[in-house]
Write a sequence for this structure.
């Protein structure tokens, strides 16, 4: 009994000595709590540097946007292919995700070796090897009957501007193929697949393995918002607030960021923690100076670190009685998998002995204990470093969410985490110690990154098919140059039909004479009253024009609302209301007793037989007052003035708004001979040769024609470009079947067209999560002004006119002063005309 006790005391004393010796020798690798907190704080700063626009370019930790916006929500379904390249194994997989979530993911996978020459050869060959492997997988599993969506796990730092694109920033780990850095790897893969042939796949998404791991775990645990890899390489991703991601537009929502923490320290911030062994590893690597954190942490380097330490200790006589073997001198002979065996709870020491003997060494019991402890220090340092960086991420998430304590899940993967007997336990413990305010659940990503990649692909596929559905819905609105040429030709035909005597009465484009024979010449003068009715606003104006000097027009105006019940009441009510507004205006101006000549801008189609006579052909836009159509609106106005019996006016001219606009602009620019309204309604007027206006007497000179082109289409000749939304809007309007062109072009209808599209897309689940609100159901709720707030399209008109009428050089002038000024000018011109006719020459 006593003897046994003594013996075990002797052994533990001996063990203690060995451990102390190693501890002393590797003191620089043993990190205290304070040091870990310090490293964690440094990583916090590095993350911020990477996220910010100003410092990203020089940041070591790149913080790459992944364009993955959410973890799986259970709606993912379908059959996907996945490629998993960049870890210790290259795999091709098939992932079947069924609709009813939980546990319903089936996977088949096959590992393909990648011969050394592909890692270091030409990139195209590497990708062709990948494509060949995919092809043979498809053959073997008889998968080629339908086109499959493919998700590509590519475990290297890539700049992504969308989910199916990734420009390789630099190789890491043991990859070094030429001609890949700086290129879009998705494109390289697609090309290789095409070259190999017979593989019917769509590469829809590219993800980093960290993202794959997070998504894999996220499928089972919705709280998972961090993915960590501790394998051949090391890295982490997490869900960041969009507003903190300078590199991506938009502030709403969240996006997964691939930190690429392996590069932590590449700018020198970890120099005081980097040992001479780390330097040696780095110098002998394929990427010296790069991935310094990774080289202290990950599976590709830990074994080699241990070998270098053992070699040095042996040379110093601290191990193996100073004996060194050839194998121990050879790079790569001692691997991370050996560390895992050596640190096994049971049998660890025996494993140590075996492994060392395999290296041609002859270890004593002491040596084995010491070597085991070297392994522990190296792997523990790795876990400590990962814990420090992870603590920084967790703290950031906690602060982003403004929480006192964070509850979250971290998905972890990688051979080190998976196979090292003590690593997970140590890592968890240190993390909990470093960030006690974060309650972390660690989940091993059992099925690797590919399942997660399939989830991302499912989302990408859904988005792509939604995009396609949206594109298909909207395709009918995109008019090709040929279609536009056709519209132009048809409009030309209709204009001519409107001008010809026999076709004029039935023409869809009415081509109404205006009795305006010329544009202003600058000799106009006087003081006029003008009305402007039919656009968004009703206005009453006084316009003073002074002779001789151009630009010397002064205007005073007041805007009045016309209530809906008046727009759609009786004609008498409408004109009484107008006269009441005039009365108010004259009071306001103190002009009740001056009998001014009046120009009446009335923006509806009128059959004119003189400048001051106009029978309303039909209401358009939002007006529908009864007992007006077919009557002379000038008479109606006169009668309303009489009814009021308060003031008198001399109504000289009735003017369409297009004509008013042309006159307003022509006053500034005599070349102006077209007036266009793109407002509540749509219409154009222009100066035509009298001889072409067959239904008006006289062949000399010109007259302005109000085309009323809004009516274009009434004879069904543009049905090919009308969409179902145009028909719906028409059907719900005050004048179904009429003004079809206007309903496709003007402000009164565009918002409504958009609203109907939005409803339709929502019905198909393509917008607003399929929820149609009551407000969206309200007619007119989506105003045309929203269109201009959302997008700017001011040059489209000019550009298209230039394309369709290449022989016409057109200047567009905005009529700043509206049509009222033009109405006054017409009144002035009309008065002159009248006087000219009265006075003998
Ligand atoms: C696997 C993933 O599970 O983990 C790989 O599917 C990833 O894509 C790997 O690269 C990381 O571990 P290792 O040890 O294989 O590099
Ligand atoms: C390397 C890669 C990184 C990857 C990690 C783990 O650090 O640069 O993208 O996530 O290895 O495989
Ligand atoms: C409607 C009217 C027309 C007017 C146009 C612009 O199309 O019918 O007369 O010019 O709207 O306001």
């Amino acid at each position: 009994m006593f003897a046994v006790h003594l013996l075990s005391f002797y052994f533990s004393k001996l063990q203690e000595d060995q451990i102390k010796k190693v501890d002393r020798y590797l003191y620089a690798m043993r990190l205290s709590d304070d040091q870990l907190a310090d490293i964690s704080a440094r990583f916090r700063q590095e993350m911020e540097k990477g996220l910010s626009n100003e410092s990203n370019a020089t940041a070591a930790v790149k913080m790459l946007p992944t364009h993955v916006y959410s973890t799986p929500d259970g709606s993912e379904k379908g059959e996907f292919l996945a490629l998993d390249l960049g870890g210790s194994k290259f795999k091709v997989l098939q992932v079947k995700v069924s609709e009813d979530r939980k546990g319903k993911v089936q996977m088949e996978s096959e590992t393909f070796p990648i011969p050394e020459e592909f890692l270091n050869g030409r990139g195209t060959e590497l990708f062709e090897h990948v494509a060949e492997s995919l092809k043979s997988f498809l053959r073997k599993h008889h998968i080629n009957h339908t086109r499959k969506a493919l998700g590509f796990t590519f475990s290297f730092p890539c700049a992504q501007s969308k989910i199916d694109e990734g420009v390789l920033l630099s190789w890491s780990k043991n990859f070094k193929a030429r001609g890949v850095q700086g290129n879009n790897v998705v494109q390289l893969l697609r090309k290789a697949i095409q070259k190999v042939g017979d593989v019917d796949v769509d590469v829809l998404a590219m993800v980093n393995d960290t993202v794959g791991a997070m998504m894999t775990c996220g499928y089972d645990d919705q709280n998972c918002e961090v993915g960590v890899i501790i394998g051949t390489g090391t890295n982490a991703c997490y869900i960041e607030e969009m507003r903190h991601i300078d590199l991506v537009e938009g502030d709403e929502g969240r996006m997964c960021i691939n930190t690429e923490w392996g590069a932590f320290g590449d700018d020198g911030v970890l120099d005081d923690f980097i040992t001479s062994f780390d330097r040696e590893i780095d110098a002998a690597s394929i990427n010296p100076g790069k991935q310094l954190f990774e080289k202290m942490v990950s599976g590709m380097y830990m074994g080699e670190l241990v070998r270098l330490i053992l070699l040095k200790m042996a040379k110093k006589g601290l191990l193996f009685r100073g004996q060194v073997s050839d194998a121990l001198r050879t790079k790569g002979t001692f691997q991370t998998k050996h560390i895992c065996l050596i640190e096994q709870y049971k049998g660890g020491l025996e494993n140590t002995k075996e492994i060392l003997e395999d290296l041609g060494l002859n270890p004593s019991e002491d040596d084995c204990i010491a070597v085991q402890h070297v392994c522990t220090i190296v792997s523990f340092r790795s876990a400590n470093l990962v814990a420090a960086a992870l603590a920084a991420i967790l703290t950031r998430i906690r602060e982003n969410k403004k929480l006192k304590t964070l509850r979250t899940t971290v998905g972890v993967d990688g051979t080190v985490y998976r196979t090292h007997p003590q690593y997970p336990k140590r890592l968890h413990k240190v993390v909990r110690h470093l960030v006690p305010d974060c309650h972390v659940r660690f989940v091993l990503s059992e099925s690797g990154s590919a399942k997660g990649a399939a989830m991302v692909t499912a989302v990408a596929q859904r988005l792509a098919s939604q995009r396609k559905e949206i594109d298909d819905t909207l395709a009918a609105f995109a008019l090709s140059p040929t279609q536009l040429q056709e519209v132009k030709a048809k409009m030309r035909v209709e204009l001519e039909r409107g001008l010809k005597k026999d076709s004029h009465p039935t023409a869809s484009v009415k081509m109404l004479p205006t009795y305006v024979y010329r544009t202003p010449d600058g000799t106009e003068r006087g003081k006029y009253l003008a009305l402007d009715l039919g656009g968004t606003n009703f206005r009453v104006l006084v316009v003073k024009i002074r002779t001789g000097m151009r630009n010397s027009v002064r205007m005073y105006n007041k805007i009045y609302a016309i209530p809906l019940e008046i727009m759609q009441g009786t004609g008498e009510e409408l004109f009484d209301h107008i006269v009441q507004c005039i009365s108010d205006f004259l009071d306001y101006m103190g002009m009740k007793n001056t009998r001014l000549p009046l120009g009446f801008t009335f923006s509806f189609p009128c059959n004119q037989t003189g400048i001051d006579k106009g029978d309303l052909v039909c209401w358009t836009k939002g007006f529908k007052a009864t007992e007006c159509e077919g009557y002379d609106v000038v008479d109606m106005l006169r009668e309303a003035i009489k009814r009021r019996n308060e003031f008198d006016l001399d109504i000289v001219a009735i003017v369409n708004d297009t004509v008013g606009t042309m006159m307003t602009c022509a006053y500034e620019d005599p070349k102006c001979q077209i007036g266009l309204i793109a407002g509540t309604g749509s219409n154009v007027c222009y100066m035509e040769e009298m001889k072409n206006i067959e239904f008006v007497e006289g062949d000399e000179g010109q007259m302005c024609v109000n085309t009323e082109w809004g009516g274009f289409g009434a004879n069904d000749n543009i049905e090919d470009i009308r969409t179902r939304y145009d028909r719906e809007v028409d059907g719900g309007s005050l004048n179904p079947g009429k003004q079809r062109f206007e309903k496709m072009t003007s402000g009164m209808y565009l918002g409504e067209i958009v609203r109907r599209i939005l409803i339709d897309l929502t019905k198909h689940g393509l917008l607003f999560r399929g929820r149609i609100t009551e407000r969206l159901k309200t007619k007119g709720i989506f105003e045309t002004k929203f269109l201009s707030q959302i997008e700017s399209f001011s040059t489209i008109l000019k550009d298209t006119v230039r394309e369709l009428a290449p022989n016409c050089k057109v200047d567009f002038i905005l009529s700043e002063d509206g049509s009222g000024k033009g109405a006054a000018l017409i009144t002035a011109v009309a008065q002159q005309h009248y006087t000219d006719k009265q006075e003998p020459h």
